[in-house]
Amino acid sequence: MIYERLRTVPTADELLDQAFRRALRPAKAGKGRGVVSIQRSMVQTVADVLSVRLLKTVHDFPNFDELSPFYYELTETIVGIERLKMSLASVQWAGNKVRSIARDYQKKMKYGDPVHIRKQAYARIASIVNEVDENLRFLNDARGKLRKLPEISQVPTIIVAGYPNVGKSSFVRRVTDAKPEIATYPFTTKGIYIGHFYRDKMRYQVVDTPGLLDRPLDSRNAIELQAISALKHVGDLVLLLIDPAEHCGYPLTAQLSLLRGIEQTLAIPVLAVANKCDLADFHGEWEYKISTETGYGVNDVVQRAIEIIEVSGREREEDLTGARNTDVVVSA
Question: Residue ranges of the Nucleolar GTP-binding protein 1 Rossman-fold domain (predicted)?
Fold first, then answer.
């Protein structure tokens, strides 16, 4: 995944401590050398350590303008791309500025007290690094969040959606190799989880989304926006789970309203599936009903989802304009 190799971003204090410690080596090894030469080497060492580390931090991050729509929107949702760009620009400025300051003060040593000038250079360099400490801390925090993003494969993908506690995580766990946390309180799935399964030697991907609540886009929280990103950019089909027994804590009317909202928002097929059919108070006539608890009907629903994806894929290939299939498969 594009973010998994991001290295820890040190704080300003950590960088300065490392650089100043490293600069002691030229001083200790400077027997037989002139004072000016030793002091210049110390300043050069500090500048090299800081500049290299600062610029490596910048180069570790990808070019955000080249990200896929999926990763671009997730990055924007989780940490904010503009703030990332501004922080990286500040760190890059600091890395270049440190070298410039080192050159200027090395030249001054020829005409003044080299020890005093070296101390002045240290102070000036330290002020530059401290100036971007907030940026460094933000980048390290962003690194921690972005490294947790899942890797999305370029294979047929089923998006599992629905209100919290309707059984999304249980479904993904039953049909794939992914094992998301399962509990009985809302928003168990705190991010996007990925699982895979094989049918007829074909690899399929299942994306477990956070709970999608039936509210306008601008009122959704970060977790819900993650789900929307997945739905818009990586799905070939939305498998919307509904809990007719309302054990999830949300009325059926609200769940059906969510279904209509997804139909209106997304340009991919939607398959509505009623879960928890093993419960005594399960009700309603549903063409597709399952129990993620017992496994009843799960294989049949997976097979139907595959059939819809195959049909949709053929229709896309035949569509000269490249528009995505907008047929919605719903039965209740």
Answer: 223-278
